[in-house]
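Before the break, one more example. Copy the sequence into your notebook; we will annotate it together after we see the structure.
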Amino acid sequence: MKHSATESTQFYVTSSQNCPYLEGKQERKIFTALQGNKAQEHHDILSKQGFRRSQNVIYRPNCDACNACMSSRINVADFTISKSQKRILNKNQDLLRSVNSSWATEDQYHLFKKYLTSRHSDGGMADMDVFEFAAMIEETPVKTRMIEYHFATSEPKESSLQATCLTDVVDDGLSMVYSFFDPKLSDRSLGTHIILDHIRIAQEMGLPYVYLGFWVQGSRKMDYKARFSGLEIFQDNVWKKFADVKDRAQL
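Here is what the structure looks like once it is written out:
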């Protein structure tokens, strides 16, 4: 990393393990810790280089024989909403956004467990208990927010929380770390709604990008990211427009 803020940073590489996205593939990651008074600065720099944060660690794929996993972001200036995305926003007009500090709540955890049970029951996070969930939310050395979406009206004894996104604020955008929502509301396309609302927040804040995490060619779980105009992919150490990413069909 040829930058003054990261010249002295030590990077490490994990051992190989089964890839969570592509069957039969092995993955490795390069990572470093975010700590001290340079944590936010390092996070800002490394996010621009395709890294993603998990608690106090920031990482990106470093696989031996595969480059299918590449970081993605939406260039807000190049984004144009589609007709179907407009319908999703209209369908969710009764949801209110609230921006909160990165503090885990019981309502969040219950929603998180419902989401995993329905969508990712065989994933690595399926057995996460309440303490691990709290660590995921609260152990952050950078500027992080919990962006929640509530129904405007609900019964007094019921939680109105329907969707949540753990979001980092970097110097050039918003980085969506992890989002989850009520799986019973599948007709509302809440995952898409959260991304669209983050684009709207970035516009309000004058930030140029919304970072979406990894896009993986060949993974159906990642197909939704290609539906957003203005998508950029980090390939060969530069950000490229999605349409210009070379050899997409062969990755």
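The mean pLDDT is 89. The first strand starts at residue 12 and ends at 13. Try to locate both features in your own notes.
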